[in-house]
Every structure is written in structure tokens, then in C-alpha cells.
Amino acid sequence: MSFSYAKNCLQRFCVDEFQMETETTHSGFFSSDLLPSLGARINYATKLRRFIISPFNPRYRCWEMFLVVLVIYSAWISPFEFAFLSYKKDDTLFIMDNIVDCFFAIDIFLTFFVAYLHRESYLLVDEPKKIAIRYLSTWFIFDVCSTVPFQSLILVFTDHKESGGVGFRLLSMLRLWRLRRVSALFARLEKDIRFNYFWMRCTKLVSVTLFAVHCAGCFYYTIADRYPDPKKTWIGAVNPDFKQESVGDRYITSLYWSIVTLTTTGYGDLHAENSREMLFDIFYMLFNLGLTSYIIGNMTNLVVHWTSRTRNFRDTVKAAQEFAKRNQLPPRVQDQVLSHICLKFKTEALKQEETLNGLPKAIRSSIAHHLFFPIVQNVHLFQGVSRNLLFQLVPEMEAEYFPPKEDVILQNEAPTDLYIIVLGAVEFIVQIEGIEQTIGKAVAGELFGEIGVLCGRPQPFSVRTTEISQILRLNRTALINILRANPEDERIIMNNLLLKLQGFGGFGYVDHQTNAGPEIKRHDDTALTSIDINNLEARVKKQEEHDGQEVNKTMNDLSLNLENKRELNEHNVELTGPDEGTKSCQFKPEVPCCSNSCLKRPTCSTSSSGSKGTKSTNHKRRITIHMKKESLHDQYGKLIILPDSLEELFRVAGQRFGGYNFKRAVNAEDAEIDDIDVIRDGDHLFFL
Fold it and tell me: Which of 416, 599, 663, 688 has the lowest tally of Cβ within 10 angstroms?
């Protein structure tokens, strides 16, 4: 092939994209990504020099694929010609081989203009001098030797009709060096997700085996064909006139011997007859040991890869069963453990968590917004909040799967997470006198756990799935931190929470948008600080059964705990007596909050201070009285309006508790009360 033709081919390759910049398209033939060095420029924007070809260009990939097809042809024809055919000048194979050699000669020329990837910097090197030095110092000599048509040259220069010399035949076997291209192709295909890895590995193993059988059969026949006494050969002992047989019959016989020897079957009909054949058999069987080990090892690895997950699953289930039996877990807990393990086995096959964890934060956030933002923005707790807050919350959520009848939250569990249902349904369960009762349900698009998280209280009820469910989990710490950075959205969320508590706790509220903040209006005698969020439904039932009691046991417990935790800061409360028909409490927070302080006890303003035994002109305050502190959890407290003096307070307390004559009163901190004005709205007093 002339130099001018090769130059024209190069110019045709270098037009348009090849001329100025690197192609970044990854839809070409099995291209791989470039890994830029830290702080270095990205290769996608690299502009190459004139006439320099990018190794990742789709057109160059097509050229490489075309050469791979020619390599497969060369790999089959070279051993076959070496053993069975005599090179003839006018033969079709002679012309075909020379055409193939010309294409590889063009590729050698093009390689001097193909940029390469630097091993250390992972940048494309497009300097012609460096490209040439690198190629000349690596594969250039081997490529030239595998391309030179030695048998064609001897026919041309000696003017012979045929070339039967073994030396030139051996030199033509250098064309097998081109097989490195096939090896590189399989390496790329195994990493290409568009092709099944198992079948690609199987194809590679089968190809290696067939090529080994083909070469061994051809070489073994060559030994018999070149032996002085044809009758003392492995094929001549069976068929003395084997040279008169057709090429196809001799080739099939050679493949038969090669397959029988490779599989160690050894029928005995074809065996070595002379020392040359015995020596070849020795090396071939040693080679078969390595090849067989390679094939068995790869197939075992593929099978183990398929079954490893199942084996690990069985081991996990067995360990869980032994753990449950050893610790005598209840049957319901055992069922939940096994159901969770089975569901985890199914979801792990999707590898969703592994995929997300391996991505940059920005991509993970984009995926989370695409999947969960429409669900989160429709949740009642986040109605009315800014879009910016939702964008901050969604990436912090983690999706989890729960099988049916599995507990997501346990009653009185420490509040750690808030949950949003994406798919499925759950039911709310409370323990009332040791009996589980369902007090409500939630379906897709609803949330639970917000009462405990936002109020800093133990979870008021258990939550159990009724079907397989996908649930978003939001950590309490992340939620609080985001809300603190968005005080206006925090106020809206707390208002939404109060609306929900209104439905559970039996009080209503009207939100008047004023500069002072929301105004909460109560229509019963239940204070906001004593809302029963531990057992809301149970409280309602108790109120119906005990019509004469103002609050129940769990209400007083919650109010006492809140009293011990916090003092109300920067809130003003105005209360009106029962004779005015309504009671109202106006909160004026400077900055809304979502932690325990959201349920702080309001402080009440007084018009004057008094002393023990004197009247006070303060506004009406409600307090909870108890007979003694030790009995707080054993009986109900009494919710009363605070009288105007301590003497009247002792008298009312004595009447409420059956005629006792009390002389002393202490608060929840065991501090004795000696002045009526130090008693605040919502206090718990204990009479002695």
C-alpha cells in the first residue's frame, strides 16, 4: 500500500471532529471514561492538535472494531495455512491475506497520530513527538513483524510458484500477535453494562478453548505431515494414505484428537507413534492442566457469584432463628425479625442504597428531589412552608422498606426520627390496661412520629405496618437544625402540629394572623401544656367514662414533666374566668421553636402581690392539686381555679380530697408555698 493512500486515509479520519477537539460522546463502541488528575483540566474540554485523533472518538472505535474482525480471521487462517495449505501466488487466500495485512499497515501509520492517556496525570497527550516515541518504544516492532507478509515476499523475490518452507510458515505465525486486540476488546466488553457479564465471560472462555483446540490440532498435524515415515505417525498408523484425504477430513481428524486429549478422554484410537509426537503431547497436556484450571476457576467464580447472596441469606436466617431460640423471643418478635430479613434480601438485589451512596451529594439530592419532593410537599405538617425548606429537608430523608405487621415505632420510645409514608399503610396502637387497641391509621402521603420529635416527648403510640410499606425517615437532629435556620417556616410547622393535636386532644384553635403571633383559643378546661400526647385516644375514652373528672392520669404526668423541664420565656397569657364563658390563652413568641420549649408553660401577669392569708387581685389561674407527691402516679389529680388566698386553697383542697385538713403545700420541686402570688398557672401542688 502506497504512502499517499495511507495519508489520504489519515486526512479522511481527521476531518471535522478529529481536527480540533476531543469527542466526548460515550455512545461509541465501548468507550471508557477519562479520569482527570486532581486540580487538572478535564479531558472533555481538551482541544487536540491538528491531525491528532482522540482514542475515544466513535469513528476511531469503529475502525478498531473492524480490525478486531480481521484479527479473528487471522487467528483462524494462520494456523490452518501453516498446517494444511501451500501458499500459491494466484490463490484467493494469497490476495485476501495481503489485503488484511494492508489494513494493519494503515493502522500502524494511524497509531502515530492517535493521542494516548498519560498514566500518571490521566490527561490526553497530543504531542506528535511524544506519541511517536511512546509507540516506537512499545508495540511498534511487534506490530511490524505481525504485518510483514513474509511468504508473499519470498514468492515475489524468488519467482516460485509455491512456498512450502517451514521457516517462512513460522514467521507468518507472528500474525497471532494481533490477538492482543481481542483481549482488549473482551476487557472493555466485560465492563460495558449493556452486555451481560456472565455471558461475556462464558464467550471469552469458549473462545479461548476453541482457539487452543484449533492451534493444537493444526500443529499436531504438521508434525505428522513433516515426519519422514508417514506410517509411523499418529494419523498414519490409522490411515497410511491420509495425505490423499481432503483438507476438510484431515482438519476434522486433527480437531477430534485435540478435543479428546484436552478433555482427557483418551479413547486410544489416535495416539503418539514417535518421539516428536510424544514430546508435543507432553507439553500439550501440561498446557491443558493450566487451561482446565483457568476454565474451572472462572466458571466456579461465576456460579459462586450467582449463589453467594442466597447462601448469605440462608446463613442470616439461620443465625436469626438461633438467636431467637437462645433468647426465647416472643413469636411475634421472631416473625418480625424473619420478615425484615426476607424483605431486606429482596431490596438488596436492587442495590439502591449502594448506588446512591456512591454518588456525589449534588446528584443524590437531585435524585431525592425527583423521587420524594412531590410527596413531602403534600404532607399536612409542611403545608404552607417555603419551597426552600422542603429542598433542604428532602435530601436528609432515607427510604426504608418494612414488611407487613412490623413495628416501626414503639410506644414510649425515645423520639429520634420522623416518618413519611411513600407506599403502604400503618396503624397506630396504644396499650390500654395491657390490651392493644388501634386508635388510627395512616396511608401513603401521611406522616407519623412528629409529635414525639417536635415536642421532645416519648412516642405517644406504637406504629405498625399493615402491608409492605416504603417509608421516608428523617432524623430529629437534622430536622431541628434546619428549622432553626428557618424560623418563619418553623412557626408554620408548629401551627400545623397544633391543628393535628386539636383533633386528638379535644381542643380547637383559631389562628389569627397578627404581628404578635398565633392566637390559640381553648374551648374546654384542658391546658395546652397538659395535652395528652402519650395516650390521646385513651384520654378521650377516660373522659367519657369519668365525666366528673377534668383530666386523666397521663395528662397530669405530662404536665408535671413539662413543668420540670422548662419555664416559659417571652410569652404573655391572659386568662378569663369561667363566668365569662370562654378561656383564652394568647401566646406571643418572639421566635417560634420546635423543641420542648414549644410546650413551655405560660407565665401569667398579676396586678398586685399578696402575702400568706391575704387576698390577691390576680387573674384566674388553673392549677392541679394532689394529695401527696408519692401518689402522683396512683390517682388522678384535681384541676381547680386558684382561689384568692392560701386559707381558701387549703379549704378547697380538703373538700376535694374527702375532708382532710391540710396545713402545708409544696410544688413539684418540694418548695413550700407560703404566698398565693408565687403560684403560677399550670402548677402542680401537693398538700400535706
Answer: 663
